[in-house]
Amino acid sequence: MMTKNKIREAALIDRRTIRVRFSEVDSMQVVWHGEYIRYFEDGRESFGNHYDGLKYIDFYNNGYMAPMVEVTCQYKQPLTFGEDAIIETRYIKSPAAKIMFDYTIYRASDNTVAATGSSVQVFINSQTRELELSNPQFYLDWKQRWIK
Amino acid sequence: MMTKNKIREAALIDRRTIRVRFSEVDSMQVVWHGEYIRYFEDGRESFGNHYDGLKYIDFYNNGYMAPMVEVTCQYKQPLTFGEDAIIETRYIKSPAAKIMFDYTIYRASDNTVAATGSSVQVFINSQTRELELSNPQFYLDWKQRWIK
Amino acid sequence: MMTKNKIREAALIDRRTIRVRFSEVDSMQVVWHGEYIRYFEDGRESFGNHYDGLKYIDFYNNGYMAPMVEVTCQYKQPLTFGEDAIIETRYIKSPAAKIMFDYTIYRASDNTVAATGSSVQVFINSQTRELELSNPQFYLDWKQRWIK
Amino acid sequence: MMTKNKIREAALIDRRTIRVRFSEVDSMQVVWHGEYIRYFEDGRESFGNHYDGLKYIDFYNNGYMAPMVEVTCQYKQPLTFGEDAIIETRYIKSPAAKIMFDYTIYRASDNTVAATGSSVQVFINSQTRELELSNPQFYLDWKQRWIK
Question: What count of CB pairs under 8 Å joins B to C?
Answer without folding.
Answer: 30
